[in-house]
Amino acid sequence: MLKIFISLILIFFSFSIQAAKEITLNTTGKPPLNTPQLTGFMDLVAKEAFRRIGYTLKTVQLPAERGLINVNAGLEDGEMSRINGLDKLYPNLIQVPEKIMDWEFVAFSSNKIILTQGWQSLLPYSVAFINGWKILEKNVPKKTDITKVRTPEQLFLMLSKNRADLILYERWGGLLYTTTNKIRTIKQQHPPLATKKMFIYLHKKHTALIPKLASALKKMKLDGSYKAFYNKVLAPLE
Amino acid sequence: MTILTSSYQLYNNYQRYVGEINVRFTEIKTIHLKNLSDRLWTADLQALKSNLQEIAVLPDIQYMEITEKNKIISSHGFKQNSNVLEKTFPMTHLHKDKEIAIGTLFVQATLNNADNQVLTQVLEILISNAIKTFFLAGFILFIFNYLVTRHLHSMAEFATQLDIKKLNSQLNLDRKVTQTNNPDEIEILVKAFASMQEKLSISITQLKESELHFKQLVETTTAIPWEIDLSTDLFTYVGPQALNVLGYPITEWYTENFWRDHINPIDTKNVVNLRKKSINTRLDFELEYRMISKEGQTIWIRDDVKVVLKDDKPIKLQGYMFDITKRKLDEIELNKHRHNLEKLISERTTELIASNKELESFAYSVSHDLRAPLRGIDGFSQILLEDFGHELDSTGLDYLTRIRTAAQMMGQIINDLLLLSRVTRQDIVITEVNLSTLASSVLTRLQESSERNVQVIIEDNLIAEADQNLITIVFENLFGNAWKYTHNNEKPIIEFSKTIKNNKTYFYIKDNGIGFDMQFVDKIFQPFQRLHSNSEFEGTGIGLANVSRVIHRHGGDIFAESTQGEGSTFYFNFGS
After folding, report:
1. Do A147 and B42 touch (CB under 8 A)?
2. Which pLDDT does position B216 carry in this prediction?
3. Residue B103 lies in a domain
4. Which ranges in A84-208 belong to alpha helices (H)?
5. Does B284 lie in the same domain as B340?
6. Residue B43 is nearest to which of A126, A145, A158, comparing CB atoms?
7. Which residues of chain B are within 8 Å of residue A147 when distances are taken between CB atoms?
8. In this structure, are residues A115 and A121 in contact, taking their beta carbons and an 8 Å threshold?
9. For B107, phi and psi rounded to 5 degrees?
C-alpha cells in the first residue's frame, strides 16, 4: 500500500515537473514564418516538435546579432532558424542537425525580366535589397547598380515607383507582402537566386534535447504534420 | 536726423538677419538636400522624418515639407501664413546616368525673430534717445526758465494782481536792463505791457465816462429800468426813478420778494403766472398791474420785459416799469362814459325803430286810404267827361282831362309809395336765382308791350343768392328805365352781364340811351328825384329808390356810371 502511494506521488510530481517545462527561442523571422502569436510556419513546426519532446515553446524577437550573443551567453535557450555552421562562431550553441526549413532568396520585379545565369544575371539591372543581408551583399555582383534599404516596405515601394528593376528578398516574406497588399504587377522570379537550409540552435545546457528534437522534426516530415503546416500557412501564398 | 540714422541702422540689421536666413537655406541645399533626396529615392520615410527634425534645429527654420508628385510625403514643424521667407528646392536622383526629378523640398523660415530683434533694437534706441532727450530737455528747460519762463511768470503774477484802480503800478523784472537799440523779446514785452496799461487806463476812463453818460440818460427818463438775476430771483439793478414813483428806498428793492410783496394782491396771481409762462417760453412780454406805494396808494405799472438768454437758457429779466396810473384812471373814466353812451344809443335806437315802424305804418295806411278818394276823383271826372263832356268847351275839357291825368299820376305815386313801403318791410327769402333767365323774362314782357326793336344782350347763367320777388322789382325798374331812356335811339342796345370793379364782382345793366349828367349821380337813388321832366319821360321818381333799397337790404351795393347822350350803366351786387 505504501509502495503504491509513493508511486502515485512520484507519478504526480513527474507530470507536474514535465508540464512546467518551457523553452525560449530567439527569432529574427517575419510573417509568414514567425509571428508574436506563434502562428508562423516555423513557429508551428517548432512548437509541435518541442511539444513532442515535452516542452512548450516561447519566442522572443531580437535583432540578429543580439539574439546570437544572448543565446551564447545562456540568457535564452536557443535560436529558431539560423544557417549552417554558426556553432563555430558561437561555441555555446549546438545545431539541431535536422533542418527546420529552406530559406529561398528570390528576385521580385514588375517588368518582364528573365534571369538565366543566377547572380550574374543581375548585372544590367538596378537592384535593391535590405542592408545587412550578408548572403546578398556577398553574392550580388559589385558592379551592379545596388540600392540598400532598411525595410521590406521600402523595397516594394521602390519597385512600384520604378526606382529599382529588381528587389531581392526572402521568398515567403515577399509573397506575403504582395498578397496582403494585393499587388498583382510584382512577380517573383524563378528559380531562387539562393537556397539556404535553416537550423534550430540550442544552448549547450540543452544538449540532451538535440537528438530528441531532431528526431521529432524528422518524424513530423514523415507523418505529414510538417506538410500540413506548409499547406496551412505557405501554400496559399504561392 | 537721429530717426533717419536709427531707421537706416535698423533696416541694415534686418537685412543682415534676412541674409543669415538665406545662408541657412544655402546650407540646407548644400549639406542636406542630397541626403534627403537619397532617402526619398529609397522611400525611407522614417529617415526623412529624422533628417527633417535635424534640419529644424537650425535657427528660424520652422517648417519643411517634402513633396512627391504634389503629395506631401513628409513634413516637420508648423506652417506660418505671413512674415516668412520661403524656398523650394528640387530633389533629384542620379539613376542610370540620368538626373531624375523625384520631388521638392519646401523650407519656410520665420521672420518673427528678425522682427523681435528689430523691435528690441527699436526699444533700445527709443529708451536711449528718451534718456538723452530728457537730459537735453531738462537743460534747455533750465536755460529757458532762467532766460524766459521766470520773467513770464513774473509778468503773469503782475497781470493777475493788476487792478483797475492801480493801473499805474510798474512791472519790474529781475534782469539786467540793456540800453541798446535792439531790445530783446522780454524787454519788448515789458514795454508792450506798459503800453497796454496806458491804453487800458485810457479805455477805462472812457468807459466810465460812457457808463455815466448812459446811466444819466437812462435815469433821467420817467421809466424805471430794472434787471433781475433769475438764479437768485433778486434785482441786480433798479433805476432811481423807482423812489419817485413808489416811494420805497432803492435798497429795499434789492431785498428778497420785494417786488412780489408789493403787487396789489388782486393782481399778484396773474402777474406771477404770466411772468413764469414767459420765462418758460423765452418770449418777451408786457403786463399791466397795480403796486402799492409806500403811502398805501395804488400805482398802475406797465412793465415791458425782455427775457435774456444764455446758451438758450433764460438767465435774466430786464425791463422798464412805466407809471400809467393817470392813463389807467382816464381809461376807467372813459369806459364809464362809453358805457353810458352805448346805453343811450341803444335806447335811442329802440325808440327810432319804433318810430320808423310807426311812420311806415302811417305811410302805408295813409297811402292806402288816399287811394279811395283818388279813385273817386278819377272815376267821377271820367263820368263827367263822358256824360257832360259835350256841354263843356275846350278849356273845360282840358281842365277835366288834366284833373284825370293828375289823379292817375297821384295813384301811380301812391302805388309806388306802397311798393316802397312793402320793399322796406317785406321779409327776404334767399334762394338761388338765375338772373339771366329773370332778365330775359322781364325784357320779353317789355318787348311784348312795345313795337320797338331793341337789341338785347344777356350773358348766360348769371346766378345769385337773393330774394326772387325783390330782384324782379329791381330788374323791372332797371330794364324799364333802360327801355324807356333808349326810346330816342335808332339802334337801342340793352346789355346784362357781369364784371369786376374795385376787386368786387358786379352785375351790370347797360344801355345806349340818353344818359345823365354825372353831377346828379348821388340824387338818382333818392325818392322823388327826377332828372327828366314828366313830359320827356314818364315816371314817379321812386323806382331807383326802390332798387337801391332792395339791393341794400340784400347787403349789396349799387352805383351808376353815365355819359350824356351815350347811355348809362348800373352796377350792383348782393353782398357776400
Report:
1. yes
2. 80
3. yes
4. 134-139, 152-160, 171-180
5. no
6. A158
7. 41-42
8. yes
9. -120, 130
The Cα of B99 is separated from the nearest Cα of chain A by a number of Å equal to 12
Residues B566 and B434 in one domain: yes
Q: Which residues of A touch B46 (CB under 8 A)?
A: 150
Residue B469 lies in a domain: yes
Range in A196-205, B135-144, B409-418, B519-528 with the lowest mean pLDDT: B409-418
CB contact (8 A) between residue B43 and residue A126: no
Digit-by-digit pLDDT tens for chain A (238 residues) are 445 444 444 444 444 444 549 999 999 888 999 999 999 999 999 999 999 999 999 999 988 889 999 999 999 999 999 999 999 999 999 999 999 999 999 999 987 888 878 899 999 999 999 988 888 999 999 999 999 999 999 999 999 999 999 999 999 999 999 999 998 899 999 889 999 999 999 999 999 999 999 999 999 999 999 999 999 999 999 8
Instruction: Judge: A126–B95 Cβ closer than 8 Å, yes or no.
Output: yes
Within a 13 Å sphere around the CA of B76, how many CA atoms are in the beta-carbon half? 20
| Domain final position from B405, B425, B445 | B425
Task: Spell out the residues 6+ positions from residue A18 whose beta carbon is closer than 8 angstroms to its own.
Answer: A54
Whether the predicted pLDDT of B380 surpasses 90: no
Q: Which residues of B touch A161 (CB under 8 A)?
A: 43
In a shared domain, residues B552 and B450:
yes
Q: Where are the beta strands (DSSP E) in B213-342?
A: 224-229, 234-238, 285-292, 298-310, 313-323
Chain B contact probe: residue of A123, A130, A145, A154 with most B CBs at under 10 A: A154
How close is the nearest chain B Cα to the Cα of A79, in Å? 29
Count structural domains, chain B: 4
* CATH at B249: 3.30.450.20
**What's chain B's average pLDDT?**
87
**Of B439, B478, B470, B469, which is closest to residue B456 (Cα–Cα)?**
B439
Residue in chain A closest to B38 (alpha carbons) equals A147
Counting residues of chain B whose pLDDT is more than 90, the rounded percentage is: 40
User: Mean pLDDT, to the nearest integer, of B255-267?
Assistant: 92
Mark yes or no for CB contact B47/A150 under 8 Å. Answer: yes
Report the residue of B41, B46, B97 to disrupt the A interface, i.e. the one with the largest count of A CBs within 10 Å: B41
Provide the CATH number for the domain around residue B564: 3.30.565.10
Q: Which residues in A lie closer than 8 A to residue B44 (C-beta atoms)?
A: 149-151, 154
- Best to test chain B binding among A125, A145, A161 (most B CBs inside 10 Å): A161
- Minimal Cα distance from A146: which residue of B? B95
DSSP H or E segment with residue B500: strand B493-501
DSSP state of A59: E
Compute the distance between CA of residue A82 and CA of residue A199 in angstroms, rounded to an integer.
5
Residue B145 within a domain = no
Q: What is the ipTM of this complex?
A: 0.74
Domain of residue B272: give its range.
Answer: 221-322
* Average pLDDT rounded to a whole number, residues B125-151: 88
**Ordered structural domains, chain A, with CATH:** 20-98+198-237 (3.40.190.10), 103-194 (3.40.190.10)
Distance from CA of B52 to the nearest CA of A (A): 18
My answer on whether B358 and B448 are in the same domain is no
**What is the grid cell recorded at B178?**
540793456
Q: Which residues of B touch A163 (CB under 8 A)?
A: 41-43, 93, 95
- The x, y and z cell numbers of residue B533, run together, are 321832366
Give the domain-ending residue among B117, B132, B154: B117
Whether residue B484 lies inside any domain: the answer is: yes
- Closest-CA residue to B221 (of B322, B324, B325): B322
Put simply, the answer to whether B44 touches A150 (Cβ < 8 Å) is yes
Q: Are B398 and B486 part of one and the same domain?
A: no
Q: Which residues contact B410 (CB under 8 A, 6 or more apart)?
A: B370, B374
